Amino acid sequence: MNLFLRDYYGGTRLVRVKLVGQSLCLGEDGYSVPLAQINGAEYLGNGDILTIAEDGVAFRLYSNQEHDAAIFITGHCNSNCIMCPTSDGERQTSYGLPDEALLAYVDMLPADVTHIAVTGGEPTLRPALFLQVMSKVAARFPGKEVLLLTNGRSLSVNSFFAKFIENCPPHLCVAVPLHGDTAELHDCITRAPGSFKQTDRALKNLLQANIPVEIRVVITKLNYLHLGQIADRIIESYPTARTVNFIGLETRGNCAKNFSQVYLGHRKAFMAMKSAVNKLIAAGINVSLYNFPLCSVDAGYWEICRRSISPEKIRYPKACASCQVKKLCGGFFNTTFSMVKPKVRPIQKEKGSLS
Ligand code: SF4
After folding, report:
1. Top-level CATH class of 63-338?
2. Second label for 6, Cα 20 to 30 Å away, from 226, 234, 274, 334?
3. Helix (H) or strand (E) run with residue 99 in it
4. What is the pLDDT of residue 70?
5. CB distance 325 to ligand 1 below 6 Å
6. Where are the domains of the chain?
7. Terminal Cα-to-Cα distance of the chain (whole angstroms)
8. Given pLDDT bands bounded at 50, 70 and 90, which one contains residue 355?
9. Cis peptide before 121 (omega within 30 of 0)
10. Is residue 139 classed exposed, middle or buried when 0-12, 13-18 and 19+ CB atoms within 10 A define those classes?
11. Are strands 57-62 and 2-5 parallel, antiparallel or unpaired?
């Protein structure tokens, strides 16, 4: 979330929000800014953590209300997936916080944070900082679930993998995308030759080290006819994966740019993945569906749909007003509506077992 503090001359800093009367107190030196001078002040709460730049532009790193901490290491990535919701510009210019500031942020997180995600871009592309962050998270939050989002390619390198294992938090799960059952398909989606081989090696390294693995399959026009084979490959090569998440598209960045090559309606995507989902469940692997509105999914699968879109990005078409399961439905990304008019089927009678 971006905020703007007018007339702010405090210098670049990391602060924990403290609301005092009608002012925002910034940091320990007592400097405060009237709420009336902050664009977006209504979104702030006590305990939020902000980074504020010289020009007064602030970004909320942590929301104390949500209690979920994202540790963003870098926007850079060594792949350039055709459906990535990040744009080329963002990938090329988003470096993340300086090392000391990011480590200070980890120190500032409250002890009762419920969930921690280490993310990017590709977080391992700042390898020394990445390992320091993992080590600090392991020391500060030894009992917490930590999710690492990575394309896995760095974890195929044995020397780096050994250092990674040394610094891992105890309750780590690593989420790695697999876009195809073959190198040809996977690499055509990542647009990074050799990435399939590296991701495959990383998944095997992780499973051999007994680190829980979540495999993410983003469904596009390029792979939707291969989902059965992808499920077969997972069952055969990564049978101890903790879960497989099928993921619907967020139409921004590369995904918006390459829209006609990649976009698939939600219902069509669900129908294409149904037998792959059944296969994985029959093989004892957990499955979840991310970014799928409930009416695009058969009622028997509602239990595995997750409300995965961040609250500030969720939108519903007008027709949803009459839907009886709207409160349970994760809706659509805001960006979907700039590209398509999604079809919805308001549910008039609860058919599923979600409650
Ligand atoms: S009609 Fe709207 S609220 Fe109801 S399931 Fe579909 S998208 Fe969700």
Report:
1. alpha beta
2. 334
3. helix 99-108
4. 94
5. yes
6. 1-62, 63-338
7. 31
8. very low
9. yes
10. exposed
11. antiparallel
